[in-house]
C-alpha cells in the first residue's frame, strides 16, 4: 500500500483512498502481486469498461423510453420503423470486433501462463481429501499452520521475483489449486500430473530476528491464500493454506528451517504434523467425531473394526493406519483416508503416535509419552559426534 | 357437437371422479401444460427452500457452533435440527447437500421443463392456430415420465440427500458412498426422456400443424424460441442420458469408465456432461427469450424490431451451443483446446447481443403499458444484460483462469438463469395467467411483487461478482472473515427475493379464489391466443382460425375483442410510407 502523501502529495489523498478502496473491492487489495495479475487484470478491465459502457447506454435508453413513450389512453403512437439493415449490421459488427479483441488479448495474456521458465523453483503438491501436501526441493514441508475458516492450514513460502513451478497430483478426487492473488489456477487430477507456475512480485513477510517469527510486511495484509476450487466433499471449503512471499535470503532461511525438524521433541512435532499434514480435517483432538474418529482417548484402547475384528491402538496400529488406511476401518466410519506412504518419515510416524499417546485419558500414558519424547531427543543429541 | 366443444377446458365433468379421471387421462395440451406448471412450481418452491437454507448457512463465516459439552455442532443442526447420519456426517455436509439439492432441483425439475413444457404446452398449439400438439398421448406420457423421474429425485432427498453438486463430477460422484447419488442420477436420466418427448412433439407440431396460410415468418417469436429449444432438447439430451447411465453402471457394477481407480478418465465425464449441459443452458434461456419478445411486443404495442434477426438468432444460438461445451473446463485441459473453445464461445455472444439491442429498440416510439408483464420484461433486460456481459470475462482465457469456479461464475449464471429465464417465466406467467385461468389478478400487488423480486435478486447476486474477483471459490460451506459483509448482504437479499415470490403466490391464490373474470384480450395482443376465450375452450377455437395479419402488426391492426378507442393506431399514411421505404 503506498504511503499517502509520499507519492501523490496531500491534495491527492482522497484519490489514493478511492484507489485503495477500488483495489480492495475488486481484488481484496491484491493487485500486481504476480506477473499474471498485471496481464490478467488488464484484459479484465478492458472487458469491464466496454461492458459498462454498453450496459449504461442500453439501460438509459430503456428507462428513458419507458417513461417517454408510456401509454396515454386514447393517444396514438407515432409511426416508426421496425427494421433497419444498416443499424442492425452496425450493432452486429461492433460487438463482433470488441469480442475479437477480448479473445485475442485474453489468449496473448494466457499463453505465458502455460509455459513455466526452465529455471523455475519446483514444488511438488499432492492434494487429497482434505489437505495440501507441499514438498520443496530440499525435502522440506511446511510445519507452521494458521487457522483459516476454522481449520488449520499450512503456511508456506514462495520466493519473490523468481518463477515457481508446482507439479501437482491428487490422491483421490479432482481438486483445483487456486492462488487468487496471483490469478493462477489449475485442476489437480488423480490419474495424471498437471502443472502451473507463478512469479510473485511483492514481498509479504520477513523474518523478525528478535522475535524469531515471520511477520507481515504490512500489518493489515496477512499474505495470500491457497484454496481448493474444485468441489471435493465435506471439507472442500477448508482446504486452505497461507502463502508468504519472501525475499531470496529469507526464502532460503525459511526452507532450511522447515527441513530441520530433528530438534523438535516427538510430542511437539506430532502436534504440528496433525495440523500441517491435514490430519485435523478429519480427526479432532477434543473427542468430537468427524469424517474419521477423534484421536482423544483412543491410545491403548481396543478399536472395533467394521469386519468384526479389533486391535489395540498402539504404535504398530497407528503406523498401519497411516500407511495402509484401507486395511482396517473402525466401526461407524467409511474408507476415506488417503495413504501417507512415502510422504512421512519414520520419525514423523513415531511423532504422530507419541502425540496420540499424549491424548490418552490415562495419566500414565501421557507421562510415558513425554518421557519417551525427551529420551529420544537426548539419544539423538548424544549420537551426534 | 358444438355444445360439447364450447365449454372451457377447465370445466369439471358430471361427477368428481370423472373430473379427476379427465385430468389424469387428459390428452388436452392445455391441461397437460397446467399439470406441468403445477409440478414445476412445486419444484421451484422446493429448490427455493434449499436456496434459503444455504444462504442462511452462509450468514456466518464458519459453520461450527460450540455447545456447552465442548462438542461441535453444525449450523444445519442448530437452525434446522438436521441430524447426523451415523458418524459419517461432518459439519459441512448439511451445506453441501443443500447446494446440491438446490442445483439439481432447479435445473432438472424446474427450469428446463418450466417454460417449454408448462407455458409452451399451453400456448404453442394455440399460437399456431392448432387444436392440439401433434402427439397428444406422447405429451401426456412425457408428463408421467417427469413425475416418475421426480420421484427418484425426491427419494434421493429422503434417502439421505446428495452431496456431489448438480454436475456429478467424477471420480467424486462415482466414489462417494453417500446414499442418494444413484437414485438422483437415475432421476435425471429419466427426466431426460420427458424432455426429449416434449421436444419431438413440438418440432412435429410446428412443422405440421400451423394453421393454413401461416408461413415460418408469420409465427410468433415465442414459437420460434420453443422450436429452437426443442431441436436442442432432442439432439443433446440423449448424450446426458448415456453419460448418467454410464455413471450409474460405474457406481453399481464398478465398470471403469470415469474413475481412475477403475481405469477410467474423469475428464471424459466432463466432456460428456457439458456436451449436454451447455446446450441445456440455452434450453433454459432461449424459451425465456421467446417470452420476452411477446411481452415487449404486446405491451409496447409495436411491431417487434428486427423480427427475422431475433428468429434467426434463436436458431444460431441453438447451433453454436453445441460447439462450446469445453469452456467449462478451461482449467483442466490443454492450451490449444482452450483457445478453440474460447473463440467459439464468443460466437454465441453475438446473436445474444443482437437480441438485446432489438428488444430495447422495439421500445422506441412505442406505446408502453407498464403492467406486471412489461415490468418483468424490463427487469429481464436489466438482469440478463448484466448476465450476458459478465460472460466475456469467463470466455476470455486470461481472466477465466482467475474467475473459474468462483462466486463470479455463481453470480453470472444466476443473472442469466434466474435474472433471465426465471424473470421471463414470471413475466410470462402473469401475461398469460388471465388466458389460461380465466381470472384477473391484483395488478398493483403483482407489480409490488415484481419490484421486490427485482431488488431482492440484485441484492443477492450483484455482490457475488466481487466475492468472485476477490477469490472466493464456489461451493464453500465456510469462508474467511473478510468475506462476511458481502455474504450478509447476499443473504439479506435472498430473503427479500423470497418475500417477493411469496407475495406473487398470494396474489395468484387470491386471483383463483375471487379474481374478476378475465376478458378475452386483456393486454391487446394480436396473436391467436387472444382471439379465443379466457380460458380457452377444449379444442382452442370454435372454428379453425383464419390468419389475416402477422403476429406483431400493431401499427395497422386493432387487437381483437378490444375497444378500438383504447388502442388508437398511428397515422396510417406514415406507416405505409415507412413500410414502403
Q: What is the gist of this entry?
A:
The complex is a heterodimer of chains A (385) and B (581). Chain A has 385 residues and is an alpha+beta fold.
Which terms summarize this structure?
heterodimer, A: about 375 residues, alpha+beta, Immunoglobulin-like, 3 domains, four-stranded mixed sheet, 8 helices, B: about 575 residues, mainly alpha, Cytochrome C Oxidase, Chain A, two-stranded antiparallel ribbon
Structural features, described:
The complex is a heterodimer of chains A (385) and B (581). Chain A is an alpha+beta fold and 385 residues long. Chain A is built from eight helices and 14 strands. Chain A has three domains: 19-63 and 83-114, no CATH class; 121-259, Immunoglobulin-like, CATH 2.60.40.420; 266-383, Cytochrome c-like domain (Cytochrome Bc1 Complex, Chain D, domain 2). Helix content of chain A is 37%, strand content 19%. The longest helix of chain A is centred in the first third of the chain and has 34 residues, at 35-68. Chain B has one domain (2-59, 92-580): Cytochrome C Oxidase, Chain A. Helix content of chain B is 65%, strand content 1%. Chain B contains 19 helices and two strands. Chain B has helices at residues 2-5, 16-24, 29-57, 75-80, 93-127, 136-158, 172-175, 181-208, 221-253, 266-300, 307-320, 335-362, 372-389, 392-395, 397-403, 407-437, 443-469, 484-514, 572-580; strands at residues 64-66, 72-74. Chain B is globular and about 70 Å long. Chain B starts with a helix and ends with a helix. Residues 83-88 of chain B have low confidence and may be disordered. The chains are: A alpha+beta (385), B mainly alpha (581). At the A-B interface, helix 1, helix 2, helix 3, strand 7 and strand 11 of A face helix 10, helix 11, helix 12, helix 13 and helix 14 of B.
Amino acid at each position: 500500500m503506498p504511503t499517502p502523501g509520499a507519492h501523490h502529495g496531500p491534495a491527492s489523498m482522497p484519490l489514493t483512498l478511492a484507489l485503495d478502496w477500488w483495489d480492495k473491492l475488486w481484488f481484496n487489495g491484491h493487485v500486481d502481486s504476480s506477473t499474471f495479475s498485471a496481464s490478467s487484470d488488464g484484459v479484465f478491465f478492458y472487458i469491464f469498461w466496454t461492458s459498462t459502457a454498453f450496459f449504461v447506454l442500453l439501460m438509459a435508453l430503456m428507462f428513458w423510453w419507458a417513461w417517454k413513450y408510456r401509454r396515454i389512453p386514447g393517444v396514438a403512437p407515432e409511426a416508426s420503423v421496425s427494421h433497419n439493415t444498416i443499424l442492425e449490421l452496425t450493432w452486429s459488427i461492433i460487438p463482433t470486433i470488441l469480442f475479437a479483441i477480448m479473445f485475442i488479448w485474453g489468449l496473448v495474456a494466457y499463453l505465458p501462463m502455460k509455459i513455466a521458465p526452465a529455471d523455475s523453483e519446483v514444488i511438488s503438491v499432492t492434494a487429497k481429501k482434505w489437505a495440501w501436501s507441499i514438498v520443496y526441493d530440499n525435502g522440506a514441508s511446511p510445519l507452521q499452520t494458521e487457522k483459516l475458516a476454522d481449520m488449520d492450514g499450512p503456511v508456506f513460502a514462495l520466493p519473490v521475483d523468481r518463477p515457481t513451478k508446482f507439479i501437482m497430483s491428487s490422491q483421490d478426487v479432482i481438486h483445483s489449486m487456486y492462488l487468487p492473488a496471483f490469478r493462477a489456477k489449475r485442476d489437480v487430477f488423480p490419474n495424471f500430473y498437471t502443472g502451473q507456475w507463478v512469479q510473485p512480485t511483492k514481498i509479504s513477510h520477513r523474518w523478525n530476528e528478535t522475535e524469531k517469527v515471520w511477520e507481515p510486511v504490512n500489518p493489515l495484509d496477512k499474505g495470500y491464500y491457497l484454496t481448493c476450487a474444485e468441489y471435493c466433499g465435506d471439507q472442500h471449503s477448508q482446504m486452505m493454506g497461507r502463502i508468504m512471499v519472501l525475499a531470496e535470503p529469507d526464502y532460503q532461511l525459511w526452507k532450511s528451517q522447515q527441513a530441520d525438524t530433528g530438534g523438535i521433541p516427538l510430542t511437539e512435532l506430532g502436534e504440528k504434523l496433525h495440523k500441517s499434514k491435514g490430519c485435523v480435517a478429519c480427526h479432532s483432538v477434543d473427542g468430537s467425531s468427524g469424517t474419521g474418529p477423534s484421536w482423544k482417548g483412543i491410545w491403548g484402547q481396543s478399536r472395533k473394526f467394521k469386519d468384526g475384528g479389533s486391535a489395540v491402538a498402539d504404535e504398530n496400529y497407528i503406523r498401519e493406519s497411516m500407511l495402509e488406511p484401507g486395511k482396517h476401518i473402525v466401526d461407524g466410519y467409511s474408507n476415506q483416508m488417503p495413504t501417507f506412504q512415502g510422504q512421512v518419515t519414520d520419525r514423523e510416524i513415531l511423532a504422530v503416535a507419541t502425540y496420540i499417546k499424549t491424548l490418552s485419558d490415562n495419566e500414565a500414558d501421557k507421562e510415558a509419552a513425554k518421557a519417551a519424547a525427551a529420551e529420544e531427543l537426548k539419544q539423538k543429541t548424544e549420537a551426534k559426534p | 357437437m358444438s355444445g360439447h366443444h364450447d365449454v372451457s377446458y377447465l370445466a369439471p365433468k358430471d361427477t368428481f371422479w370423472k373430473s379427476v379421471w379427465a385430468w389424469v387421462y387428459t390428452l388436452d395440451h392445455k391441461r397437460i401444460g397446467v399439470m406441468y406448471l403445477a409440478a414445476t412450481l412445486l419444484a421451484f418452491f422446493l429448490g427455493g427452500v434449499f436456496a434459503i437454507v444455504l444462504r442462511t448457512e452462509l450468514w456466518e463465516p464458519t459453520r461450527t457452533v460450540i455447545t456447552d459439552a465442548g462438542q461441535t455442532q453444525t449450523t444445519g443442526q442448530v437452525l434446522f435440527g438436521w441430524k447426523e447420519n451415523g458418524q459419517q456426517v461432518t459439519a459441512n455436509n448439511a451445506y453441501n447437500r443443500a447446494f446440491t439439492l438446490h442445483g439439481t432441483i432447479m435445473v432438472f425439475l424446474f427450469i428446463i421443463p418450466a417454460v417449454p413444457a408448462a407455458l409452451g404446452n399451453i400456448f404453442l398449439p394455440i399460437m399456431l392456430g392448432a387444436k392440439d400438439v401433434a402427439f397428444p398421448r406422447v405429451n401426456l406420457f412425457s408428463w408421467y415420465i417427469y413425475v416418475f423421474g421426480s420421484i427418484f429425485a425426491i427419494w434421493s432427498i429422503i434417502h439421505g440427500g446428495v452431496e456431489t453438486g448438480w454436475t456429478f463430477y467424477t471420480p467424486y460422484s462415482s466414489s462417494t458412498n453417500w446414499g442418494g447419488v444413484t437414485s438422483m442420477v437415475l432421476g435425471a436420466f429419466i427426466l431426460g426422456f420427458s424432455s426429449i418427448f416434449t421436444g419431438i412433439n413440438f418440432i412435429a407440431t410446428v412443422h405440421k400443424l400451423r394453421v393454413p396460410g401461416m408461413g415460418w415468418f408469420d409465427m410468433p417469436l415465442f414459437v420460434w424460441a420453443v422450436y429452437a429449444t426443442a431441436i436442442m432438447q432432442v439432439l443433446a439430451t440423449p448424450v446426458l442420458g448415456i453419460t448418467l447411465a454410464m455413471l450409474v453402471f460405474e457406481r453399481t457394477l464398478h465398470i471403469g469408465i470415469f474413475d481412475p481407480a477403475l481405469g477410467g478418465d474423469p475428464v471424459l465425464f466432463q466432456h460428456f456432461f457439458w456436451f449436454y449441459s451447455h446446450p441445456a443452458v440455452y434450453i433454459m434461456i432461449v424459451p425465456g427469450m421467446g417470452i420476452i419478445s411477446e411481452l415487449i411486443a404486446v405491451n409496447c404495442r409495436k411491431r417487434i424490431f428486427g423480427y427475422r434477426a431475433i428468429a434467426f438468432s434463436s436458431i444460431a444460438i441453438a447451433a453454436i451451443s453445441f460447439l462450446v461445451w469445453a469452456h467449462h473446463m478451461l482449467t483442466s485441459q490443454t492450451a490449444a483446446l482452450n483457445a478453440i473453445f474460447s473463440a467459439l464461445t464468443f460466437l454465441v455472444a453475438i446473436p445474444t447481443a443482437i437480441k438485446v439491442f432489438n428488444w430495447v429498440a422495439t421500445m422506441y416510439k412505442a406505446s408502453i403499458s407498464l403492467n406486471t408483464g412489461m415490468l418483468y420484461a424490463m427487469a429481464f433486460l436489466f438482469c440478463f444484460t448484466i448476465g450476458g456481459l459478465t460472460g466475456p470475462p469467463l470466455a476470455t482465457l486470461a481472466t477465466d483462469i482467475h474467475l473459474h469456479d468462483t462466486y463470479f461464475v455463481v453470480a453470472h449464471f444466476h443473472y442469466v438463469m434466474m435474472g433471465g429465464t426465471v424473470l421471463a417465466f414470471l413475466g410470462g406467467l402473469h401475461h398469460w395467467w388471465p388466458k389460461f385461468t380465466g381470472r384477473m389478478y391484483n395488478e398493483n400487488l403483482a407489480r409490488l411483487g415484481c419490484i421486490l423480486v427485482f431488488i431482492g435478486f440484485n441484492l443477492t447476486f450483484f455482490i457475488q461478482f466481487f466475492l468472485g474477483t476477490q477469490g472466493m471459490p464456489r461451493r464453500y460451506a465456510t469462508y474467511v472473515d473478510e468475506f462476511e459483509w458481502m455474504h450478509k448482504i447476499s443473504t439479506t437479499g435472498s430473503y427479500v427475493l423470497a418475500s417477493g415470490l411469496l407475495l406473487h403466490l398470494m396474489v395468484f391464490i387470491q386471483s383463483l379464489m375471487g379474481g374478476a373474470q378475465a376478458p378475452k384480450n386483456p393486454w391487446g395482443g394480436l396473436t391467436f391466443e387472444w382471439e379465443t376465450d379466457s380460458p380457452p375452450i377444449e379444442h382452442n377455437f370454435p372454428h379453425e382460425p383464419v390468419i389475416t395479419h402477422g403476429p406483431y402488426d400493431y401499427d395497422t391492426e386493432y387487437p381483437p375483442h378490444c375497444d378500438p378507442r383504447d388502442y388508437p393506431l398511428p397515422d396510417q399514411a406514415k406507416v405505409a410510407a415507412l413500410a414502403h421505404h
